[in-house]
Amino acid sequence: MRFTFWGVRGSIPVPGPQTVRYGGNTTCIEVHGAQDELIILDAGTGIFQLARQLQADMPLEASIFITHTHWDHIQGLPFFIPIFVAGNRIRIHGAADPVNQRDIHEVLARQMDYAFFPVRDNELAATMEYVTLREGQTTQVGSVTVTPMIMGHPVLNFAYRLESGGRTLVFTGDHEWPYNIYAPGEDGHTEYEAMVQERRAAIIDFFRGADALIIDTAYTPEEYPRRTGWGHGTYDTSIRAAREAGVRQVWLTHHEPTRDDAELERVFARALERNPPPDPASEPAIHLAREGITVTL
Ligand SMILES: [Zn+2]
Ligand SMILES: [Zn+2]
Q: Which ligand has the minimum distance to the alpha carbon of residue 12?
């Protein structure tokens, strides 16, 4: 299995000279299974450059898995050229939104409403299929088994665990670790804490033994208190989780749009200093995700 980052930025694209090393596009990861099955994780603006590269491979079959439908994870989809070309087969997977009862097709069709985009969803030339997933329901894409798990985010967000050819890749999408909403000593703190720990353990289990974990790492611990509840992790929570789950390599992503390349490297270096490996022998390789990098597992 191998994967390539096409977008590593959270919230909004930030192209320009200050972000050229890590890239300014929003989330998109291209994955190839052991038998070269094409899977795309999220459709942020990074998917446009991927689409240009895929033009040489058409007609093609692609399985897109959307973690959640915030703009930065879907806004490139109307510009994914293969959807306009007859002969291509595109299958899009994602969650139903339990708040407004819309399935993945309905949510995505809305961003192609006439007011926003000139081509309508029902005019796409490729064969389009939409699959609404439930937590734990596996999908087989050739040799690749894909399993979704609900993470902590203010709209339903699936992490995906991909297994193929004896290798495992996990991508969290956007994720904030569960936290206790009660202060110590308050009524409900103890019960809530048990729930938090149980949920946390289930998520660590979902990551367990992955060859690569790609994880939402938006904030520094100094920034986090003012952004609690926004649905994102920190450098420290990501590093700790990767160690606890025994993953081999971890890729920190969803970089803050306000951080230029130099600042990104500074906060990363400080995070490594703050979190020295407790056991260097089993320490995962820790990287900042960067546009254009291909990793073979
Ligand atoms: Zn996001
Ligand atoms: Zn989000």
A: 1
